[in-house]
Amino acid sequence: xxxxxxxxxxxxxxxxxxxxxxxxxxxxxxxxxxxxxxxxxxxxxxxxxxxxxxxxxxxxxxxxxxxxxxxxxxxxxxxxxxxxxxxxxxxxxxxxxxxxxxxxxxxxxxxxxxxxxxxxxxxxxxxxxxxxxxxxxxxxxxxxxxxxxxxxxxxx
Length: 156
Prior knowledge:
Blueprint: E1 2-3, E2 24-27, E3 33-38, H1 52-65, H2 68-71, E4 76-86, E5 95-105, E6 109-117, E7 123-134, H3 136-139
Antiparallel strand pairs: 1-2, 2-3, 3-5, 4-7, 5-6, 6-7
């Protein structure tokens, strides 16, 4: 399984963001992006449960990263629209997974769908999004060295 890069300060994938979720992303080779994460107390809304906005953020990044499967760092997915359906409470303190995939790809945009899975495999939340394809240089002043954009080792 190929591990995707993370950054330094992104709220979802930033490995040095002390309030961030520290989500790791992988390419299992089946046309999906797999995210692994464990929520902490600062990510909760109701006690012991992820805040819905954080769940939306995790799904947003998982779906947006699906474009990397074909385009690597050359093309980034920038969210135009995101719809989330919450089905079950999402606990903090346990390892969870999210899965994302492209369902429609066009020349300048794509649509993706995905889910957050509970440890027993049940779907806790699902999303569908529309993204525009942009070069990283258009998205932001992004310096890979400054942002520490690299594959970080998995924590033990």
